[in-house]
Amino acid sequence: MPEVRANSLEEAQEAVRTYPRLRPKGGGSKPALSTPKDGETLLDLSGLRGILEYAPEEFVFTAYAGTPLKEIEETLRAHGQYLPFHPPLVEQGATLGGTVAAGLSGPMRERFGGLRDFILGVRFVDGEGRVVRGGGKVVKNAAGFPFHRLMVGSLGAFGVMVELSFKVFPSPRATQTLRLTYGSLAEALAAMERLRVLPLDLLALDLIPPATLEIRLGGFPESLGKRLKRLQEILQKEGEVLAEDETHWEGVRNLRFLEEAPIWVKVPSTPAWVPKLENLLLGPRRYLAGGELLYAGMEAKGLASLRQAGIPHLVLKGAEDALFPHPPEAFFRKLKLALDPRSRFPLEKRGGVGEL
Amino acid sequence: MGFLEELRALFPPGRLLTKEAELAPYESDALTAYRKRPLAVVLPERKEEVVEAVRLCRRYGVPFLARGSGTSLSGGSLPVEGGLVIALNRMNRILRLDPKARIAVVEPGVVNLEVSRQAAPFGLYYAPDPSSQPISTIGGNVAFNSGGAHCLKYGMTAGHVLALEVVTPEGEVVRLGGEGLESVGPDLHGFFVGTEGLLGVALEITLRLLPKPEAYHTLLAAYRSLEAAGNAVSQVIRSGLLPGAMEIMDRLSIEAAEAAVKAGYPRVEALLIVELEGPKEEVEEEAKLLAQVIKESGALEVRVAQSEAERQAIWKGRKAAFSAVGRLSPDYIVQDGVVPRSRLGEALKEIGRLSQEYGLRVANVFHAGDGNLHPLVLYDGKKPGELERAEELAGEILKLCVRLGGSLTGEHGIGVEKKGYMPEMFAPEDLLAMERVKEALDPQGLANRGKVLPGHGQGPHLGEVYA
Ligand SMILES: Cc1cc2nc3c(=O)[nH]c(=O)nc-3n(C[C@H](O)[C@H](O)[C@H](O)COP(=O)(O)OP(=O)(O)OC[C@H]3O[C@@H](n4cnc5c(N)ncnc54)[C@H](O)[C@@H]3O)c2cc1C
Ligand SMILES: Cc1cc2nc3c(=O)[nH]c(=O)nc-3n(C[C@H](O)[C@H](O)[C@H](O)COP(=O)(O)OP(=O)(O)OC[C@H]3O[C@@H](n4cnc5c(N)ncnc54)[C@H](O)[C@@H]3O)c2cc1C
Q: What are phi and psi of A9, to 5 degrees?
């Protein structure tokens, strides 16, 4: 398979100008998205790595797109900060660019929001090899077209991301998790729906079918006990307080629960959809963020059932057609023409499905 | 039939304005120094009427502008000479409020505060809170990616918009986004937010609602200098706290606020308001830490609101500051550049120096938590040359913000007012990419012509404009 590496902005521009069809790859943790198709050249960006600017007091950093998230999180941790959107697959080598392109957040997105809420700016190489910047490096900014937000979930369709700027927050001082198991899905769902509208500032609120809730709290160690107790009172249920809090959630956000499954899928969900989703042929799975985000493992028949039900999803691993449905043509096509007129980058429409 | 005749066929007399006296209120927005006479104003009541109006404009090549409440401070809702104004205030229905799903689906003319009001019985609210929230519309907020006092913690409008129905300048209706917090594929609805109406008109907007915080802890601290107040903000951040809001006012704005609403503020050089919010047990702990940080910051006086009434009293002066400063001077220009928080002190010092140099008073009241300045440049439009001097001073402040690594605007948008400064912040290639996007979606350049992009509407030789 033809492959080219870009270790600098200039090399990325050169690659774009040279090869008619390119597929960027960060670390390859989402192979359904980063494996080149016929006629495509793989653009390996893993050499374009490193943190460029980080001022802890500003709550902002800028890094090369190929920087492994692990490296970024280690640096943030040394200053008591974290990525509040809690990206998945960090241990497997996910990069900042790959995570933006795939548009992925993890369990702690429940507290402050997902990737789209924290991205501040981008520098990317468009389909003509031009370097374009959107957004900025400050936490608040409304100047110009927000190309950085366009990159979220773009699967690299508009260009090769080179630099990204993000907002970060101080880490919770302490965390605790309560696990509650109910008699039925309906009961667990009802409890989850109840919690969703209360001002409890939960760090995570996960539903694990058939009927378990995992609720994570973060804050001052002095207050956590009281908040946990209140939670138990609201739900009128003791539950179990997890002993290994951090290790447990690291496993969850790295999607360890999917490991046995051949196909990995992200499904934007809502609590109202859960019963419908539970009727499909899905494998190991977990609804994150109060039922707003499902990561599910499955076999081919499970994917077929999702597609048949017309439920939007993104395949991370194990299948060819990654994105369903294709983005709304009237708007998407024009943007694509403006930024990638020669279709060098992924995401062309074939039969209603986003062919990657 | 001509353009106006066709409009008449679509809109009954009371909802199509063409007479001079009827058009006058639509000639400008809150940046009153700029005025332009539109050809006509239509007042649609349903989205189909907006779509028809846009399609008509396309067929006749007539430029158009969507308008909410006209509170733009950057000339964003300034009409195009001879163009059509599509005024959306009558499309002010909340179509669906689903507390379980934590969403509200609204028409673009719904006033920001109305969403929170309707959500309140369910313990929910709509987080973005521009000071103009009692009048500005969700459509205008979406176009400008409006902010408010809580952006550091809660983000701007873009994060709170989950889906949009948009009519493109070519008259196609598209749905972007979905009903949940997550989506797959490019974040097209996120991209639309902040494009200032250049890429189409938002017809229907799905908003995310949040549970209303349970407890607040609001503190007012007085300082002997702006710098000391700025340093206190840095100390709060360094302590690991994440307040919902941190606001600073300088002496001039304190005095103006006192004169206007008698908030009972101490008369000092600078005031800092810090508000914590969250579950009561958590806020209690945070408040202890905050008290210690503020004590160490050298505050002259500290007041903590002991009741909701006292909390409102602390906010009253801050919220009235803009209009209050208006009393100090016949005219003023508001800027809203952003600087990295750690450079606030430097920026304010330089603004003070510029104020002296230009011989114009500048009042400062700003969102300190996110480095979003709001210098109000006071001038008297009746004195010859003073407007020009004020504009020049305001421009110097913008350049200063960019130089310090910040942005031209944190929330008020580029509009017409700041488009000349876009090349200070963006390279020619960046601006050309924006132009290309505009051209692809709006080949005739009809939607909000002449806004945001410095080269826009200047003929086919874009390359030369940016050379
Ligand atoms: C089993 C396994 C073990 C591994 N072990 C290690 C290890 O020990 N150490 C190590 O360093 N790595 C390791 N890796 C590699 C590691 O997984 C990859 O670094 C990681 O997968 C990166 O993935 P990603 O998240 O960057 O997204 P990718 O899967 O690379 O890409 C996701 C999507 O984003 C797009 N994209 C990516 N970057 C950009 C960009 N800059 N601009 C535009 N589009 C972009 C892609 O085209 C694709 O659509 C391992 C991988 C596997 C599968
Ligand atoms: C006293 C005062 C205080 C303010 N405080 C703040 C503040 O704290 N934070 C802040 O962010 N702003 C603030 N503003 C600025 C202003 O209120 C906001 O920009 C607001 O979002 C504008 O809303 P509007 O309904 O008045 O829009 P308008 O002024 O009517 O329009 C603004 C822009 O939006 C476009 N537009 C309107 N509706 C649509 C639509 N449906 N589809 C597409 N485009 C559309 C218009 O074409 C125009 O470009 C303040 C203004 C005033 C006067």
A: -60, -45
